[in-house]
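[step 3/7] fold_predict: job queued, chain A
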Amino acid sequence: MSDDSKKDTFREKLLEKQSEAKVVRKIVLTVFIVLLIVFSGVIGGGYLYIKSSLQPIDPNDQTAIDVTIPIGSSVSSISKILEESGIIKDDRVFKYYIKFKNESGFQAGDYQLAKSMTITDIISTLKKGKVMDEAVFQITIPEGRQLTEIASIIANNTPYTEKEVLATLTDKAFIDSMKAKYPDLLTDDIYQENIKYALEGYLFPATYPYYTEKPTLEEVLEPMVQKMSEVVAKYIPQLQEKNMSVHRLVTMASLIEEEATEKADREKISSVFYNRMEIKMPLQTDPTVLYALGEHKDRVLYADLEVDSPYNTYQNRGLPPGPIANAGEVSFVAALNPEETDFLYFLATKQGDVIFTKTLDEHNKEKNKHITNQ
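[step 4/7] structure written:
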């Protein structure tokens, strides 16, 4: 074989090897990318699963469940008992959470726990035996109540006067202490100019048990702020995606709560508010006028619409400075997930049905049909 032939053969083999090497590199790169995607998915899925497992089973279910922790129970056995009782989602996550937090000192005994309890509440309960006895009393805060109404409810169920409750609720030292404990919920927005009450809308509507005859007012009020923090925490990722503040969410949810009836489609009401803000149309919602007036009325008069207040959404565009009442979780969901509609108007009939319309003419026709002529 000539030297030229040898060189040609060498070149062909070299090119063949280079080609094979390229194929191998492509295969390795492809496998690496696939493994990276799978690994990322596993990590992401694992994170979401653990996060979900650390949330309450059902934030709205406060039904007492009898749970017995035998003497000498290990962390593993306690975790299994809690999962089997439906108090936690995953015993392994609970067990490793306890180890990670270096928690100890759990007490044996008969407990009454609930699916609405947070991990921290459960741990605290098992360490202190807080609910081994029945609650001395309970306070139920309904949805849609204003701060002054909540103060009245608390006064009716405790030895404190309404004035004392309201004084604590408006005390800057107390508010700042809550702000320090729950920074993701209570931001500097609650101290904006024209805010009527800093904690308006931040006391979650629920039933709260108390285990001493006369807890301090701080001990009465903090669980309401804590519960709101736990509820809102679930929606922080959505808020970040929408570049929406917690204060804006709580404010919008309060408007939806005050306008909604039992039959109302809150996502549609939400869409009306967002549609109006998008075209810079005043929200014109009566509950804000009543809040500005500081009174409750069955019917808002035309003269009432002239009240000079930053909360009056007939006189001011956009959201009011802050919430006008406490909203339930369904209103938070609606505030975050408005339905896609072209509606700009709605009205509630005396039967509680809510009628949505796109134009003022349509709205007035429905108003004449269901409101004016009745």
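[step 5/7] annotate
The chain has a mean pLDDT of 86.
The chain has 14 helices and six strands.
exit 0
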